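Hey all, quick one. A colleague (J.T.) asked me to put the iron/sulfur cluster job into the tracker so the inputs and the structure tokens live in one place instead of scattered across chat threads. No bug as far as I know, just bookkeeping. Sequence used:
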Amino acid sequence: MGLSLAKKIIKNHLIEGEMEPGKEIAIRIDHTLTQDATGTMAYLQFEAMGVPKVRTKRSVSYIDHNTLQAGFENADDHAYLQSVAAKHGIFFSRPGNGICHQVQLERFDIPGDTLLGSDSHTPTAGGLGMLAMGAGGLDVAAAMAGQPFFLPMPKICLVKLTGKLQPWVSAKDVILEVLRIMSVKGGVGKIVEYGGDGVASLSATDRATITNMGAELGATTSIFPSDNVTREFMAAQGRESDWREMSADPDAEYDEIIEIDLNTLEPMIAQPHMPDNVVKVSQIAGTKVDQVAIGSCTNSSLRDLMVVAGALKGKSVHPTVSLVISPGSKQVFEMIARNGALADLISAGARVLESACGPCIGMGQAPKTNAVSIRTFNRNFEGRSGTKSADVYLAGPEVAVAAAINGVVTDPRKLGEPIKFDYPEKYLVDDKMVIAPSETPDKVDIIRGPNIKPLPENSTLSDTLSGKVLLKVGDNITTDHIMPAGAKVLPLRSNIPAISEFVFAAVDPDFPKRAKEIGGGFIVGGENYGQGSSREHAALAPMYLGIKAVIVKSFARIHRQNLINFGILPLKFVDSNDYDRISQLDDIEIPNVAAALKKGESQFDLVDKTANVSIKLTHDLSAREIDVALAGGRLNYIKMNG
Ligand code: MIC
Ligand code: SF4
């Protein structure tokens, strides 16, 4: 039996382990990326490892999240990141150059290589046939130091595409349909590989839209083959020499197959407050809309903005709608400026923002109270927009622009003749906003502003864990619930003591105070705990507040890894019904857990002294992860083991 594309790339990069689903493997990482909101921690950790120069083929540090400079903090972080990049062999993409995933796709991704990024949407690069995964900053720092990336060998799921998309239907509708079918936890432990004869009709940036939002499936990553379409895109970016053909064997075996007929796909939309709450646009047509936001790493390529500009040409944004647009990169921005499309956007009344994440991460443009906001982004978790009462819907650029014109949710097929867009033979290539590392690194001083606080340290795992259940939450808790983002909190990303005051802010604002007064304890949760972003602050800040273990029904991959990296035990109920037997503020104890882990035992008893019950817990830590947890986290482990 032949190999899937994902397995071929894993096989080429395998350092340790067997490629059997669920078993831990270690793979070599060729490239890394970081962004500013996770990057400061990643580089503080990299510095602590004492490696003078990155050991990857190429590492790039982007500034794209924290670009709203309402105080000195973000600008200080940028200066720190620029100096670290210069000193340690890292390329630095300046603020204004664009969103990491879009720029990485245009300028740096290489089919068949591996990429690890401290951002959950790193799989965007799968659109060019790269095996690209999101991880916590510490894992990315370790990869920059030349260490392998460890992950459980995923199952491979084939999404077989046939046919061709109809006018006004686009790549976003494909991934929304996949989300409708698989749900936000349907991709956990899997790589989603696209194949079938429908692939050839999708452009490189269409494919990137699909792999980008594969993150919302909980998937390890998503990947498309690298074919002639990929070659043409890379040639148009002046990088044809980096292209290579990559595809699955014709007789490749898959663990699961889903089929989608592109011909029959209609415009889709995800309703509040989850990306898998997907319906056809026609089902909710007529819903009044207050804000439309176009941009983000999912939908801000040249093609997407040209479609929006084409639809808006000669028209006006509806008087009750605020339309905001953030181009994905300087390349896209400059091209629409030079070809006149930007003038059409401005003339129609769009509010054009810089090339950055912007409203997607709540960095400005919070909608009004109870607003309906249609966004071309990838996440609509409650409160992420900055307005808790807002209803955020996710859709493609066609649906977004139709709503901006009509002021209500509108099937874009009602807009008439489709907008014609021809992909350029040459994109405008100008890399002056990417600064190469210094040739005299010894002369570079690291700039540390007053907001950059040292990394908090953790002690080794105690034998018996005891304390109170500080919080009990339900299913699908996101990292936005655990560690919110937004304009107020993001500037504190390099200051753990300060940011820890916001842990679970929207769920239970008293949590940090309670955790500190009681002196730490436990969190109890349901299914898919920690879905969403890769932010390790969602583990680091709880660690700082004294959380010793998180006990749930199931975990999302990146967050589980981040918990281990910071010495918090990720434990699961053997019988998920036991979740109901444990209550917030119960006094609990897990005796001799460190000894049991050392002995390789997979089950422990939790004694709930308040409810007077004993509950069986389990874990799925590999032998290496057990050592990391016992050491109190990966940084301690690396220091102990070199
Ligand atoms: C996000 O979309 O939630 C982010 C902000 O890009 C995060 C990273 C972060 O929290 O800094 C992600 O997706 O990993
Ligand atoms: Fe930025 Fe939004 Fe993409 Fe995250 S999802 S990288 S915040 S644009």
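Adding what we noticed when we looked at it: Residues 65, 99, 119, 121, 296-297, 357, 360-361, 377-378 surround iron/sulfur cluster (ligand 2) (CB under 6 Å). The CA atoms of residues 42 and 137 lie 4 Å apart.
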